[in-house]
Amino acid sequence: MNTNFKKDIDLGLSAPHKTLPSKYFYDKIGDALFVEIMNMPEYYLTEAEFDIFKNQNQELIKALQLEPSTFFELVELGAGDGTKTKQLLKALDDQNYNFEYVPIDISEHALLNLKSSVASELPNVKIRPKQGDYFNVLADLKKTEHPIIVLFLGSNIGNLPDSRAKEFIHKLNDNLKIGDRVLLGVDLIKSKDIVLPAYNDAQGITKRFNLNLLTRINTELGADFDLNSFEHKPEYTEEEGIARSFLVSTKNQTVTVRSLNKSFHFTEGEKIHTETSRKYNDRILEDILGQSSLKICDRLTDSKQLFADYVLEKKNR
Ligand code: AVJ
C-alpha cells in the first residue's frame, strides 16, 4: 500500500501536468470529511439519490425486474455506510424477496459498521461483506450461478476518466452472465451554478478534503508541503460535463519529499489535478457502454432531475 502510494505520488508530481490520484483522499481524516461533504447543503448528489431509493423503491424493484421467488445476489461496489441501499433492502425484505446482500468496500471499518447496522435494523437480510478494491473483486462475480444485481451508486463511476470507465464497464460485462443487471447511479449534466458550489462549499469542507491529500503526503512520505501556499480550485463547464478539482500553488516554491529523496518545483499558478467528477447523460453513457453487451433498459431520476439511476442488463450480444 505504502509503496504504491509512494510510487503514484512520485509519478504524479513528476508529470509535466502535475496530478495526484483521488483514491488517496480516503484515509481516516478523508473518510470523515467525505461524510461531512455528503451532509452539506451544496452537495446535492447524496440527497438526490436517496430520494430515488426512499420514494421510488417500488419502481426501482420493478425496473430491476426482480422476482420474489428467484434467489439473487445483490452485490454493491463501494458500499460505504449503505444508507441508500438499506431503503431498498427494507422494501425487498418487507415483500419477502429471496436474496443475499454482498457489500464490497475498500474499508474494513465501513464494512463492519454496515454489517452490524444491517443485523440490527434488518435482521432477516442475509449479508456477506467482502473487503477489496472494486476493480479487483469483479472476477469473484463469476463464482456464482445465481442471478446477480450489481449496485454501483453515488456517481462513483464519475471519478474515472472516460477511458478508464470504458475499461471498467468492459471488465464488469465480462464477469456477468446474460440477464444479470446493474444499477448505475450517476450525476446528470447540469449548469455550473449548481455543480461548482457542490465542489466549492461555503464552509470550506471540500477545500480541507482536497488539501488533506497534501497532509497525507507530509505525514506518510515526510514531505514539507505548506498548506497555506496552495488553493483549492474546482472547474466545470456544462458543455464538457466534467468537474475537475485542482490545488493551485500561490507562489514559486519547492517542496521536498524525504522518503523519495526528491524535490518538486511549483511555479506561481501551477496546478495539481486531484480529482475528476464526470457528469452523465444518455448519450455519454451509451458511449461508455460502447460495444459491450450491457444495454440501458430503464432509468429513474429524483424529483428535481439532478441524478439518475440507470438499469443496465447484459444481453445476448
Ligand atoms: C464520491 C466520487 C462521487 O466526485 O462527487 C465529493 C467525491 N469529491 N466532493 C464526487 C467528491 C469532492 C464524489 N464521489
Give a short summary of the structure.
The chain is α/β, with parallel strands linked by helices. It has eleven helices and 13 strands.
Describe this structure in words.
This protein is of the alpha/beta class and 317 residues long. The protein has 2 domains: 3-42 and 196-278, no CATH class; 44-190 and 280-314, Rossmann fold, CATH 3.40.50.150. The protein has 11 helices and 13 strands. Strands 1, 2, 3, 4, 5, 6, 12 and 13 form an 8-stranded mixed beta sheet that branches. A 3-stranded antiparallel beta sheet has the order 7-8-11, with helices on one face. The protein has a two-stranded antiparallel sheet with strand order 9-10. Strand 1 (72-77), helix 5 and strand 2 form a beta-alpha-beta unit. Helix 3 packs parallel to helix 5 (83-94). The longest helix is centred in the C-terminal third of the chain and has 17 residues, at 205-221. The chain is globular, with a radius of gyration of 20 Å. It starts with a helix and ends with a strand. The model has no long low-confidence stretch (mean pLDDT 96). It binds N,N,N-trimethyl-histidine. Residues 37, 45, 154-156, 158-159, 199, 206, 209, 275, 277 line the site of N,N,N-trimethyl-histidine.
